[in-house]
What we know:
InterPro entries: Phage_capsid, Phage_capsid-like_C
Number of helices: 10
Largest sheet: 5 strands, mixed
Shape: elongated
Subcellular location: Virion
CATH architecture of the largest domain: 2-Layer Sandwich
Number of domains: 3
Organism: Amycolatopsis minnesotensis
Strand order of the largest sheet: 5-11-8-6-7
Keywords: Coiled coil
CATH topology of the largest domain: hypothetical protein PF0899 fold
Radius of gyration: 35 Å
Pfam family, one: Phage_capsid
Order of helices and strands: HHHHHHEEEEHHEHEHEEEEE
Helix content: 25-40%
Amino acid sequence: MSEKIARLADELKKHLNDAKTIAAKADEENRDFTDEERSAVTEAMTRAQETKKALDAAKADSSVRAAIADLGDAVGLVDAEAEAKGRREQADRDGYKASTRTSIGETFITSEQYKDLLLSAPNGQFAKDMRVQSRPLGYKDLVTGLSPTSGGAFRTEDYRGVLVGPDRFFRPLTLRQLVTGGTTTSDQIEYARITGWHNAAAPVPEAVTSAAVGSGDPAVTPAQAGVKPESGFSTVRVSTPVRTIAHWMPVTKRALSDAAQVRTLIDNFLEVGLEEELEDQMIAGDGTGENFEGLATVSGTQTQAAVPDPAGKPAGFGKLLAVRRAKTKVRTVGRSVANAVVIHPNDLESMDEISDIQGRFYFGGPAGANGTQPLWGLPVIESEAATAGTAWVGDFRKAILWDRQQASLTVTDSHADFFIRNLVAILAELRAAFGVIQPSAFCKVTLV
């Protein structure tokens, strides 16, 4: 094994181990990748693919050299390659490009295309009934601005590429991290939704008689019989289907071949687009057609009306009070502990800017207007999935997102006339279902 092949093999092993380590950690903790982990895995796999390609090419070159050595003078490739190399070196010394020109035959037998052709035949020999076809080999003598060895050598490109990651074109996604995550292998899910309960727990005295309640004269009371109070809760069985979220985009084969970054950009664009729509469906899905039954559609959630600004307080102060009262309703009526506030960016902006006459900010301000400062002790989740003018306060752990098929990408030219146009379609899709276990654990807040 050559030094180059050994080095590439070690690099490939390192990149794959990096990706496996991150994936194993996420599997062990039974969770999805974080944004940072997803970026690291993508980078590791991209580098692994590039290293694998280089390793295959190095192995192919090594095999061809061995085959050429075995064929020896009968094929004549060794002498031809040495002669062509000598001509190139002489041309470099003399500074004349014309002296590097070899015959078409010599150019072909020393090309990578011919080496690949030999590898396709057993022992480098073609049987008479075998089909022989190599990749195209081009010969350019024109002065062209596209070639870096011709007129293009005088051209300076000001290419900046994509200076930010594709995630910068989308809003941050955090709603998935709030809810309970689950998986399913079916296309239909049935679960029990809690619609009410009665807690009758109370201290109970010791029984003073074994007689049945109501028997005797006077009648035995429940307290005398030591009867424990009965509690209970009511449920309803809910059926929710697994829905498919998908979209696709066309791209030329040339774009994919010439710029690896294009594929990375498209993949991330499509995958993030799926997650963005999923977030919208979890909050605002109306349950019709192929839409989810989102939180805003579920019956039994609580509501908190807008609170007027108190006298002497600045404009918008009532919004802060409305969120606080919603938190109380989740605790007292929903018997739950709220774990977040989901709010539209426009509303969060107006709440950040609430200040007193001395310019002191009540909630946000320059020091804490990044969406991470707690509001009444609750994490603030800034999301366009929430309708402007409203917010959601709740225990989002009592909503479940079942993954049937996480985001996947498929590439094909078998669409319309894409095959004859050198176009491919890149399709991204996921399948999931969403359910709210306890609607009363959520409160919709009207802010205006």
